[in-house]
Each structure stands twice: as structure tokens, then as C-alpha cells.
Write a structure and sequence with these properties.
Order of helices and strands: HHHH
Radius of gyration: 16 Å
Helix content: over 70%
């Protein structure tokens, strides 16, 4: 049984760690977003831009150091990761606009939905583009 668990962990290590790091960063993103919206610091779409940027920077550092352990070409990898993050930001902004402004849904519920959708898309892009281990 233990052997099976170890094999599964080794097979899905990147996904598991990405999920844990992503969960932490999504929580950070959601907390910042909630504070900015709850205290009416700024409109929800601007709060989303700020909170996602905090999540992007934190996620890059943690995934680079802990998960993918790829430390070469940092500037290039960061630009790729940031571009993926901006794609996620665009999707999130569109989803929030459609659900909150058009649909009239609660902004916090919509933020949670957008986090899940965007996280799945970004995992695939980051694993196969940003942190792909190129032979040197």
C-alpha cells in the first residue's frame, strides 16, 4: 500500500505541489480581493487586478523554488509565467464582469468560481511552457 502511494505521489508530484502552492496563492488572492472589496478600497475589477498580481508573483517564486525546481533562465521563465498570469487575469476579469455586472451574482462567489477555472488553465500552460525542462 505504501509503495502504491509513493508511486502515485511521484507520478503526480508536480500536480500535487502545484495544487498546494496554487491553493495557498489562491487563498492569498481571495483574501486580498475580499479586503479590497469589503472595505470599498476600489471597485471589484480593480481589486481583482491587484489580488491576481500578488498571487502571480508569489506563485512564481514558490513554484520555481519548491515545485518545478528549475532555476535557469529566470527572467525568461518569469516573463512566460507572467504572460500566463495575464491570460488568467483576462479570463478572470471577463468572468467577473459577466457574472457580477451582467448576471448580478455576488462578487465573492464569482471570484471563487473564476479562481478554479483559471487555475486549471494556468497549470497546463505553466507545466508545459513556463517550467518545461529544456535540455541545454
Amino acid at each position: 500500500m505504501k509503495e502504491t502511494i509513493v508511486k502515485l505521489y511521484n507520478r503526480f508530484r508536480n500536480l500535487i505541489l502545484y495544487g498546494l502552492i496554487g491553493g495557498f496563492c489562491a487563498g492569498l488572492d481571495f483574501c486580498v480581493y475580499t479586503v479590497l472589496c469589503h472595505y470599498d478600497v476600489m471597485p471589484y475589477l480593480w481589486a481583482n487586478v491587484i489580488s491576481i498580481h500578488i498571487g502571480i508573483f508569489t506563485s512564481f517564486i514558490l513554484n520555481r523554488q519548491i515545485n518545478f525546481k528549475v532555476k535557469n533562465k529566470t527572467a525568461l521563465r518569469f516573463m512566460s509565467f507572467y504572460t500566463v498570469g495575464l491570460v488568467g487575469l483576462g479570463i478572470s476579469e471577463l468572468m467577473l464582469y459577466l457574472m457580477v455586472t451582467i448576471g448580478g451574482w455576488n462578487e465573492l462567489v464569482c471570484k471563487l468560481i473564476s479562481i478554479v477555472v483559471v487555475a486549471l488553465i494556468q497549470f497546463i500552460l505553466n507545466k508545459y511552457v513556463t517550467f518545461k525542462n529544456h535540455k541545454e
